[in-house]
Amino acid sequence: MSAVAAKPQAGGAMNPTAMAVGVVMLVIILALCWYVSPGAGLMALVGVIIGGVLIGFGTHFVPVGGAPAAMGQAPGIATGVAMLAAGAGLAGLFGGAWAAEQGLVIATLTGGVGGGLMMAITCMMVNFVYVFGMGIPAASGKVANDPITGDSQKEFKSQGTEGHGLPFVSFVGGVIGGFLGGAGGTLIYYQLLKLYEATLPTMIGVPLVQVMPIAIAAAGMFAVGLFLVNAVLTAYNITGTIEGPHDPKFKRWPRAIVASAVASALCGLVAILIVVPM
Amino acid sequence: MSVKIEVIEGGIPHQKIMIGGLVSTLVCLYLTYLNVLTKTEMFAFFGGLAMITALIWGSHTIKVLCSYGIGTGVPSAGMIAFGSGVIAMLLATKFAPVMGIPTAPIVALVLAAVIGFILGYISNNILNMKIPAMVQALTEMAVVGALSLMGFAALITGGFSFAGLTPIKIVVTSQGLVPTSQYSFLGGGLIAVAFLLGAIAIQHPFNACLGPGWKQDRMLMLTAECGFLSMIVAAFMSFAFISTGSAMISLLVAILGWAYTYNQYICLSKRDAASWLDAKPIPEMEGH
Amino acid sequence: MEQIVFGIGITALTGALATIAGSAEDTESNIGSQGDPNSQVQLAPQMGFVHRIFNKAIAGEPPAYGLWCALGAGLAWAFMAMQVNAVLAIVIGCVLAVLVQGVYATTAYLGRTASLAKFGQPVYVDVLKSMTSVTMAHAFIAIFCVVTLCHLINGALGHPFPLPLLGLIWGIALGAAGSATGNPYYGKERQYQNQKFGAGVPISASGNIVRYAEAGERNSLDNGWFTAKIGGSASGVCFGLIVFLELWRTILFEKVSAGWGAIVVGILMILIFTVADRYIEVWARKNYGPYTEAKEASS
Asked: What is the pTM for the complete model shown?
């Protein structure tokens, strides 16, 4: 018994027709939003789309090794890519939400720095455990020399493995991924929050201070939901593991940009329709 | 070296489970509407039953999807299901009843199906995953996500209207009596708990019964057990929203259901296990 | 000024709670064998290596801990909404959450092991009985610390998110940090103890995990002692640093230059950790040396 109908390898191939259909869907959704809620709604949707794309793109940078990494057989972090990216991004969202009243730029950057900081600490501790706890130096399996530091990798790869630990380029990739994810999540949260703050009081008919909890919780929940959707789509794109920005799989990112844009646009439109009077 | 996922034949066909799950979920959701008609909250437990039937359907969908070896883990499927479902569900709660019949569950169904279909199209075509069952599976899972979250909402607050999820209550604070929506299902963030409860419960049965000895009845029994377990804790949370008596009914139904399904699951595991040993050493296998 | 001192005090407390939570989380996930290393526990019987190790397959650590912490926080929130005292609410909420965790652990073990019947892997009821209570105990510590720190962040530091949402966020972050730091240590050092130290596990050895150990047959309970050697502390420090530095830079610097202060300090911190990581990497290369000569190395 084997997996049903051995599916053709996903590979890095791009499907131009599907990408075109995706772009068309994106335009349709934007048009729909402009129709029901030009102005605040459309701006919020654009923000959500950009945030979603940042999350999807950023997750490509995060080095994830999956089950082999847990045995020192592959470089990267030994966790699932969607949840690791979600963890970093949500830590960033936490910081960004706190800074929300200080404006869009500050909030987004704070969220990004929060996510990047979490990944920096985590990646450093991963290398710490590999080096001081297991006696294994970091080595990449996909490149002969580290693109940033120039260190040669081959002779530091133990026999029978694909590499292990986090070479410097993977570390930098992780930080960038955390930064983009945190920034994207905060951007989604911020845009939806501002929209809800502006429209919920009129919709429910009470002063803003009474509906703030709803606005915050709904915007936060949507940010989490969109985060997970985009991260999982990226996980599908890279089929589970990636070493970092130097990995050949990284070249698949254009597909993820379109995919994240359409998915975020769709979910964002639904989130906006909640406050549009029907 | 990852776990091999294999397709096992036999058991109830997926179409039957899908239709059965969909119909029972919708019926149970509509039964919670009795709360509005009878002006009580006694029928909130139907929301929990709706959630359980939706999860049973959804866990089988995950099994169908993951049998194709999607190259990444099973939990991701649960996350994308509920990530898309939560957004559809919240919009659907806004739709008021038409001629006395609530439309929210049907709207949630249609909306989630559209979102799931598009996500499936994206995954299969733009991301080139090319898995035959992907589009249908993601559509079904988004619907399951939306409907089970609606079930949670009905269980905890007694209904699934937007107003019911976001009531303004007067609370005593240091500034005196202050009206706030902080103590509502949505305002208090309980939707996040429902989200994760459902997302883990939908993928756990297939993930836990994974292996060459997978059996459909054991997996579905485990889904029911996870559902009732989630219903127990959700019933505890409902004490803050609905009357104590109604919450007690939900809790009782949940505990009885959980005890039965858990016991059945252990019996089925005993039936399927190679051996059921207590404090015995590792058996000798030739060559190892 | 007093506001900042109060904030710093709370931040220090949350940092300490986070450190304990991280350590307990890693210990718990190693005792129960959860996450990516668990694929080896699943694989071993298929390669003929029957074992007595607990097989707790409940998703990965991030979503699982996201659920336990969100659940604990949600229940605590509900009890607090019913005017129950905050401490009691958190305790009861965490107890209920840990009961859910225990049930999930038992069903995971039974399910996975029953599905391996073809390879002769028995269900060991005594493993189930002894391990479940221990994982629940460690999980309780982790969940309680996270829910408490969320309550402090929401109540004392004034974060806008409600308690359950904070529980979700920090639960997932805890799982991600603990899993990233602790998994390779458990996977390589403990499960493949019999492989050469200082090198990764060769692919040919997959499935051949250690099953006979110090005192007879390997028992997952001893993974607790093992994790305490470095993995648990490393995970604790990791998560503790994450929570503490995130809160610290916000409390102290968010008012400086209208928010830019916190951002600049954050970037500085990232640079410091980058330097530290680079130092560790170079130290390893210099001290451990290559496995083979640079010229002879084959890919």
From this structure: 0.94
